[in-house]
Amino acid sequence: MNGKIALNYIYLSPHHAGGKDQVGLNLLKGFYENKDISDICIICFEYSEKSLRCIAPGAEIIVLKSPRIQNELQRYLYICYTNTILIPKIIRKYKISLLFHLSCNTGIHKQRVTSVVLPHDIKQIAHRKLPGLTVPFYKYILFKIMYYMDFKLNDGIIAISEVDRREIQTCYPSCASKVFQIYNPIDCACFHENGTCEAQNIIAINLQFLHKNVITLIKAFEKVKEKIDDNLILVGDVPERVSFLKEYVIKNNLQKRVKFTGFLSDSERISLLQKSRLYVNPTLYEGFGMTAVEAMILGVPVLVSKIETNYEVTLGMCEYYEPAEDSDILAAKILECMDKPIKDMDLEKISQQIYGKYNYKIIAKQYRNYFMRMIGK
């Protein structure tokens, strides 16, 4: 191969707290364990260097100085500046043949080499209006322009599900031929412990966005709390935009039964999942839905809203309810799931099938093959 594959990881957040970050970290781990790292270099800000070196010791890492970011707009502008001004210099200096952007906002001109973008989803465009939630018009326009520029200027677009692929092709038909579907890489089987005899509590993960629809779960739990002993454990930060979740819990005297954990590390989150009796995701929208897949791999019973993406990525192998915003239906389904005897062997079978499809090393190989095709190798 004449040049290198560059993984543009400047999109990683300082604390690696989101699903998009986890995709990048799992993918790198897959490349490393597949021994496909020799012709790969990683571009990142200095706060990501240590964690990346832990995942892929010996990998070539190009470290950029991160700015003093005060808000999301400044971060957006600096990433755009980096991709427009600094990345082309790196491409020339390190003889890069393919550039992979871990997220959108890839700059304002086309790179001189083959480039691929992973948008994760286009929720703000494809689902501007969800029940009780509408993306403001100015944000809709900004995202519409950003995705258009990214899709036009890059040679490949990776969709994380078949639903995501169709939405990108429908909303941006001029770029439809560029879209290629690869599922997200999952890495949690190493934590898998057999048996759920000590399982307790209902758990939900990812609270920070309105479309996660956690308020419906809280209201559903409120309806069933006198019929079950389990508590509701809500994992993740609670920023200002969803502070009403805590306010509702306090107002309705649910503090003893509804617990907010705040941010948890991967090991803490996995440990809590393993000990849970039921994982619930009442989301209104998902591009992929990693946490439900992780729970299934860990042998946890899973209940999710029956939106199209959830059904696709869980392979129709868990419990579903609809419509997503109906707390009465969700409450009834929770009770049904809690009463339903599930054999450990069934959970193990589900775990093996799900992990066989989304194993990070398998997905990393799919990415690798795709990159090779993109540069004619």
Describe the fold and architecture:
The structure is a single chain. This protein is of the alpha/beta class. The chain folds into two domains: 4-186 and 359-374, Glycogen Phosphorylase B (Rossmann fold, 3-Layer(aba) Sandwich), CATH 3.40.50.2000; 189-357, Glycogen Phosphorylase B (Rossmann fold). The chain is 43% helix and 16% strand. The protein is built from 14 helices and 15 strands. It has a seven-stranded parallel sheet. Strands 12-11-10-13-14-15 form a six-stranded parallel sheet, sandwiched between helices. Strands 6-7 form a two-stranded antiparallel ribbon. Helix 7 (214-224) packs across helix 12 and helix 10 (290-297) packs across helix 13. The longest helix has 22 residues, at 72-93. The model has no long low-confidence stretch (mean pLDDT 92).
Helix content: 40-55%
Count of helical regions: 14
What is the CA-atom radius of gyration, in angstroms? 21 Å
What is the terminal separation in angstroms? 8 Å
Which word captures the global form?
Answer: globular
What is the topology, as strand order, of the major beta sheet? Answer: 3-2-1-4-5-8-9
CATH class of the largest domain: Alpha Beta
Q: What is the total domain count?
A: 2
Query: What is the overall pLDDT average?
Result: 92
Q: How would you sum up the major sheet?
A: 7 strands, parallel
The fraction of residues assigned to DSSP E strands is: 15-25%
Which ranges are low-confidence, i.e. pLDDT below 50, for 5 or more consecutive residues? none
